[in-house]
Each structure stands twice: as structure tokens, then as C-alpha cells.
Amino acid sequence: MLPKELLAEVRKIEIKTRHLVDSVYAGGYRSVFKGRGIEFAGIREYYRGDEFRAIDWKVTARTGDLHVREHIEERELQVVVALDLSASMAFGSGLREKRETAVEFGAAMTLAAARNNDRVGICLFTDQVEKFIPPAKGPTHNLRLIRELLYFLPAHQQSDVRPALSFLNRSLGRRSVVFLVTDAIDLPPMERELRISAARHDLILVTVRDRREEEIPDIGLVEIEDPETGEEFLWDTAVPAVREGFQRTEQEARARLMALCRRLGIDVIALTAGESVIDPICRLFAARERRQAGIAGGGGGLGARSAAAASPSGRPGGRDSP
Fold first, then answer.
1. Farthest CA pair distance, the chain
2. Residue limits of the VWFA domain (predicted)?
3. pLDDT per residue over 234-259, tens digit each?
4. CA-CA distance, 10 to 2, in Å (whole number)?
């Protein structure tokens, strides 16, 4: 029997994400995420108009009549939500922490995958893998995933996406849709693991930020503690150069991150603590659909794998850009 508190949380998440789940079930989810490829379906006699390259010459030689090999696209997806649970994810300058926003996203994608009868799993990590539940199906499995997303307590504080990516590259036996959910924006040192993961899987980076991490207000002397290392800093936010230096450092880190993702062909969803998780997801879906339509129409699609084209601001994910 599931605790009443868990059922209540699941119900709240279902209500919040119903629009997303209904939208992706109507076509967006299936159209922007591909299955694992082409599967052999059987052999039949050749009909006029069949592709010449589809002819099975062995069967043709054995029977004396032209035969072709038929294939179908395998549409079942395998989805993994890899979620950063380091101490910095507990930060929130408003009513909600970054972790709460990240968990809502993870739960939404879990329910969307379940609605589409796809296999889904989670990988919870800090600077090491804290918990891995392999992709599977079923109501009991899906509720277990949401329970762990909501209540799991990590043993470590610091963050490093490399062990999690390396673990998933070893553990996932087939191509998967991997959502890497983290508040880390200084990812270039992890380029090797990102490059390998992007080649093996449909890797999507989901950044989670708080507004106060992008711009510090003028509130005088502030003592700041790094939640992951415990190191303390004293900043005089009344000094414009201090605020400008902080903002410039953040902007440069985001620019490096986006350049790396463009180079590796990694899509980005940008979430902001306390704000909607649905809108950034829908923007990414729209960008992918446009890119796929451009490729199908011979136009080449979008130049970079980001949600920029779906955003009025032109930034990946619009105003929620990492």
C-alpha cells in the first residue's frame, strides 16, 4: 500500500502535468523522439515499384522469383531521467527550490513515457551514482520512480555529471532518450563524457537555475556559503563591480555551455526554479518538429540543436535560457 502522502503528491503532479502529457500523447512526444531504429519484419514477393536495394538475393536465388526484405520502425522508446541531487539543487530564492522544479520535470517525463507505453528509468546522482532504477514499464514501477524522485536523500553533497554519464553509457544496452537534469553550467571539462553520450543516445541537457544565480541584487554585505563545499565568501553587493563581475562570469559560463552543446548536437531545455516546466519542454518539441520538417523538406532544418527557433527571444528556451 502506498502512503497517502505519496499518492497526494503523485496526484498533484498529474494535475500539473496533464496538459503536457496530453499534448505529447497527441503527437509531439512521438514525433520528436525516435525509436531504436529499423527492425526486420519479413520477406515477401517483389512488386513493381519496390526498391531495388531491398531485394533479398539469397531467397531470390533459392526460389527463382524476386523477393524483398521488409522492415518496420521500432517505435518503443527507452527513457532515462538522470537527475542531479547535489546540495546546490536545494537552493531557491523564491517559494521553490531548484530540486522541486527538477523533480516536477522528471515526474512529468515519467508520466509522459508511461502514457506512451515506453520504458522509463531514473539515475539519481551527485558526484557519483546514488541510485539507478533501470527502464521498465508498469504502474507500480512508475510510482516507484516518482517516489524516489520525491523522497530520495543522497549520501553526498558535491556534483559531477561524469560518473553518471559513464555509468549510463555502460549500463544502457540500447539507444535511449536521456534527460540530464543539473544546475551545473560549467560543463566543458566534461566534454569527453558528453560527446560519448550524445553519440550513443538522444542526450538532452536540462539546466535548472534560480534567478538570483543570474543576477545579484544590491543588498550590501552578504555572506555566501557554497552548499557543496562549505566554503564561505563575503561579498559587498553594494559595489557595482562585484555585481557586474558575478553576472559576467555567469554569462560567460552559459555561453561556453551553449557553444559546447551546439558542437556536440545536444538539445537544451532551460528550467527556472519556481516557473513552469511545461513551456520550455513545449518549446523544445516545437523546435525539433521544425528541424525535422526542414530536413524532410530538404531545407536542412535548424542549424543548431536547441530550442532557439521556438522562442520569441531567439535564445534557447526563451527567457529561461541557461
1. 88
2. 76-237
3. 766 677 777 777 778 778 888 888 99
4. 11
